[in-house]
Amino acid sequence: MHSYEVEVKTLLGSKERAEEVRGAMRKADASCTFVSKNKQLNHYFASGQLSVLEKSVSPQLSKDARTRFHDIAQKAEEFSVRTREKDPSTTLGASAEVFLVVKASVSDSSSANGISRIEFEEKVSVSLDALDKIILENGFKYQAKWSREREEYLCKGVNVTLDKNAGYGWLAEFERVVDDENQLGTAEKQVRALMKELGVEELPQDRLERMFAFYNKHWKDYYGTEKIFHVE
């Protein structure tokens, strides 16, 4: 069974604004839960085909994940392939986890930054470099590499992340994940209602696309740093 996500981003900019959002969440929902804090490396890929990648990546996936990956490979017209290394920095003794991620558009927005997308995320047992190598050997190339520190919260049934991103600075993402595409409309209403209550505004898609394009062109200057750029 596939997972579908509604994800809306808002640009916070400063750590002070991020703290205001933390306070607003606690005020809006007394049961607001801090879920985790971690550091991530996210590598984005372009130019390949899922149908070609499928054979090589299948040995790294569970039976259920292979079925879901095959379904996306057959249906997706626009998609974004990524690898992720997550360091659970708040868990004593925990080691980094590596994931294969595919996001495919289910609306008129892009698979890289769109609001409504079908989501595939599967933990694998190989290293980030080894997973990257599999993807690169199957016709893909690096689009960009991203680094961030992430805090995860659950507020009024919505997954909220506060990210300190290389290049972007502080960014918040509001997400609901459902297992039925027909539930996406309701999920989006819940997300936007919480954002309104917290007093945050959506980062417009056209500006987000410009920021994404700028970072893709200059990612080597920002990856693994705390440097920030500004694009209107």
Automatic annotation (TrEMBL):
The highest taxon in the source lineage is Bacteria
Q: Which Gene3D superfamilies match?
A: Hypothetical Protein Pfu-838710-001
Q: Which InterPro entries match?
A: Adenylyl_cyclase_CyaB, CYTH-like_dom_sf, CYTH_domain
Q: Where is the CYTH domain?
A: 3-218
Which Pfam family, an example, fits this chain? CYTH
Q: What is this protein called?
A: CYTH domain-containing protein
